[in-house]
Write a structure and sequence with these properties.
Shape: globular
Number of helices: 4
Radius of gyration: 10 Å
Largest sheet: none
Structural class: mainly alpha
């Protein structure tokens, strides 16, 4: 599974944005924006994705 697919699966999961943010170190607002389409996954840096 590609990294992008893994991230999309996580964003589409039942996990809360807060829980994802806490585990990944990515801000909750970024997670929310990704989930609601306000930010494109293709625009995040590789550092953030990893």
């Amino acid at each position: 599974m590609k990294l992008k697919d893994k991230i999309e699966a996580l964003l589409d999961s039942d996990a809360t944005s807060y829980a994802i943010a806490k585990e990944t170190g990515i801000s909750n607002s970024t997670i929310v924006e990704l989930r609601h389409g306000k930010r494109k996954l293709s625009n995040i840096s590789l550092k953030v994705a990893e």
